[in-house]
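Thread title: Can someone regenerate the structure for this chain?

I was given the following input by a collaborator and told the matching structure tokens would be attached. They weren't. Posting the sequence so someone can regenerate them.
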Amino acid sequence: MSKVEEIWRRKSDDEVAKAGGCLSDYTEEGQAAIRAELRRRGLPEPPLARTTPAKEPLMGKRAVTIAESRYPHEAHVLRRAGTSPALEPH
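Best answer:
Regenerated them for you:
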């Protein structure tokens, strides 16, 4: 186990979860250690950053914010919830 992994193993669940919400603040090694610790503890892991453009552009469509979240893993759940037919425009 590396020194970085040891550091994250000693952190509380809240500290690891909060770090998972702002992975871009850490080095690649730190990000990998945080993701590994989230998995080890069974905590929600933030989605990987999108590297390809969306399949369907929003041109001509109106985007509406229905909820906000500080943590990427919560945003993922909110995005999935936003696919409900109940949220379709009338």
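The chain is about 45% helix and 0% strand.
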